[in-house]
Design goal:
alpha+beta; five-stranded mixed β-sheet; two-stranded antiparallel sheet; about 40% helix; elongated; disordered C terminus
């Protein structure tokens, strides 16, 4: 129902185009991508730009059901959806759960219940009327967070405009019985990176309270500074990711705990979203990207149990995690593809994608600003058109975050005439795209192939033949200790004598068990005479260990390989005895159908 309501809300226009949050195709990054280019555009015109950030007081609790239903009906939303929303908001009950609490339900008749996926969407629709057409101002919102941006020749004029805009917004909000939490209000006076003068200290007075410009401001998870310096934001992301790793690493200490494939899942679901948040908008400077890369390699060592002296290229390939610079380029390509495949009617940031990208919609920012088409007048400040920036004569205008993302997506769409829509059910009210176009899913698959190709451009050491993969190997479903032995021996840094440590590079590499040849990875598993009996019983049919060998892709052989490592102590620390046979030891022939890998080994 959330998808149906969001699609109809977009086509029937009960949602303002500059509203983000709980809407398919619009994210926090899109709100920032609309905000920053507008500020930079007016800085180039020598305007002073200021933004006031507001928060609706009790946004979910203040939604009135009759007003919301009346709004949906007036905007032409389907009657069955209106009836469904009426049923959703009516006759709600709840009870408190704690030790010894009675199981008695009490009626609840306050606003919209939180926790449902449709609740934020209902709030967005209810507050859509607060997007007023105020002269020389731009209002962007994310659910119940509003940002009012104004531009003028001086900051003193901006202060008066912001106070006037707040008064207009407050009067409009009172008509639907909502108000703003004034103590949470924040102000920022934007400035360019080359500004040498002191920052503006003029405050904004709202309801007898003064609000001064902030040097650092957090909005929608982004850390803003007056000059859009990304260092504060990425330093915060780096600190948060370190704190999360310190918590989850106790689930899998070295040699025990969760298997590597579950550690990989934790890294992708808990660490990557925190660390990479903001890569689609800003580029971290080298002073930040270097410690972030060191942290990312520490995550790889936690997954694979490899040594700290392992080659970093081998380390990333063993952990199935791309290096951070490669992953950053992949994230920006996906963000550029999403913008290019989103029509401006759904995502206002997509109207600024450069014309060199074959976007889904022909409506681009240069044409909009020059007045040739006017379907989205909300994308720009309401200033005198004679003073609007002429982007065709000012090439510097092309260097903004949205243009960079659009250019990042060009390798994915260089042979595509017209891009597909990001979602068919969101664009079913628009005219069909002429010709045959590839699907959005196919273009994302092309982005993944480009990720692997980009990852492979950095050559691995001669002793490491394995290609980069994003899908975990079957042996990563084994226990942490045994899987760690395999990762170490594959990467060329292990307890095998042929893999000497950095402090003793001239150590004897002869196998201590047979004294016939160097104890390489292949010798320990395929030809060492001391383990011939275990090899004939457990590793029948395994004759080589190249990247295409069956042992790295088969679903049964990793179990036999684990038993071989346990019984022969292959790759064990010096002095550690072999482990006892597992209670679930495989039959003599591991290729029998009755032997299967545990179901916990997932695929990517």
């Amino acid at each position: 129902m959330t998808s149906h309501l969001s699609a109809q809300a977009t086509s029937c226009s009960p949602i303002h185009p500059l509203q983000c949050g709980s809407l398919p195709g619009r994210s926090t990054a899109d709100a920032t991508l609309v905000q920053q280019p507008n500020v930079e555009s007016f800085h180039r015109l020598r305007y002073k730009v200021s933004t006031l950030f507001l928060d609706v007081k009790g946004g979910f609790d203040k939604v009135e059901s009759p007003s919301l239903l009346s709004l949906l009906g007036r905007k032409g939303v389907s009657p069955y959806l209106v009836q469904w929303v009426r049923s959703f908001l009516r006759d709600g009950t709840c009870h408190l759960t704690f030790e010894g609490s009675p199981r008695l339900f009490a009626p609840v008749s306050v606003g919209v219940p939180q926790g449902s996926p449709i609740s934020p969407l209902l709030v967005v629709i209810f507050v859509s009327s607060l997007h007023l057409e105020i002269h020389r101002s731009l209002i962007i919102s994310y659910i119940d967070d509003f940002a009012i941006t104004v531009a003028s020749p001086s900051f003193r004029t901006n202060v008066r405009l912001l106070q006037k805009s707040f008064s207009s917004l407050k009067r409009k909000a009172s008509t639907i019985n909502i108000s703003f939490s004034v103590p949470k209000t924040e102000l920022i006076h934007w400035r360019t990176a080359r500004s040498n003068g002191p920052p503006c200290s003029l405050p904004v007075q709202l309801e007898d309270q003064l609000f001064y410009s902030q040097s650092r401001l957090r909005w929608l998870g982004f850390i803003f500074t007056p000059s859009f310096d990304p260092r504060s934001h990425f330093s915060r992301r780096y600190t948060l990711a370190n704190a999360v790793l310190a918590t989850i690493r106790h689930l899998s200490p070295p040699g025990m705990g969760l298997p590597p494939h579950l550690c990989l899942s934790l890294a992708r679901s808990h660490l990557a979203p925190i660390l990479l948040y903001g890569f689609a908008v800003w580029s971290p400077p080298p002073a930040i990207i270097n410690p972030m890369s060191v942290f990312w390699r520490r995550v790889c060592r936690w997954i694979s149990n490899c040594f700290s002296t392992t080659n970093t290229i081998c380390l990333h390939r063993e952990a199935c995690l791309p290096p951070l610079p490669t992953l950053r380029r992949h994230q920006r390509r996906l963000a550029g593809l999403r913008l290019s495949c989103s029509p401006p009617e759904i995502n206002p940031a997509s109207a600024r994608v450069p014309k060199s990208v074959p976007t889904f919609s022909p409506h681009h920012a240069p044409l909009l600003a020059r007045g040739k088409i006017t379907p989205q007048p909300y994308l720009f400040f309401n200033l005198d058109r004679r003073s609007a920036p002429d982007k065709t004569k000012n090439p510097r205008y092309q260097h903004n975050a949205i243009t960079a993302l659009g250019n990042a997506a060009v390798p994915l769409v260089h042979d595509v005439v017209t891009l597909p829509p990001i979602s068919l059910h969101l664009t079913d009210y628009l005219p069909p795209v002429p010709g045959v176009v590839p699907s959005y899913t196919r273009l994302k698959l092309r982005a993944k192939q480009l990720l692997l190709s980009d990852w492979s451009t950095t050559p691995a050491p001669p002793y490491y033949p394995y290609p980069p993969l994003t899908c975990p190997y079957p042996f990563m479903g084994l226990g942490k200790f045994v899987a760690g032995r395999i990762h170490q021996m594959r990467s060329g840094k292990s307890y095998l004598t042929a893999h000497p440590s950095w402090d003793n590079p001239d150590a004897d590499t002869t196998c201590l068990l047979c004294s016939e040849a160097p104890q390489t990875f292949e010798h320990a598993f395929l030809s060492c005479p001391s383990s011939a009996r275990q090899r004939s019983r457990l590793l029948q049919g395994v004759s080589d260990l190249p990247p295409e060998a069956l042992i790295w892709s088969h679903q049964q052989l990793p179990i036999a390989l684990a038993e071989f490592i346990r019984t022969t102590a292959t790759g064990f620390p010096p002095g550690m005895p072999p482990l006892a046979l597992s209670l679930h030891a495989p039959p003599p022939n591991p290729l029998l159908p009755s032997t299967t890998l545990p179901a916990r080994g997932p695929r990517d």
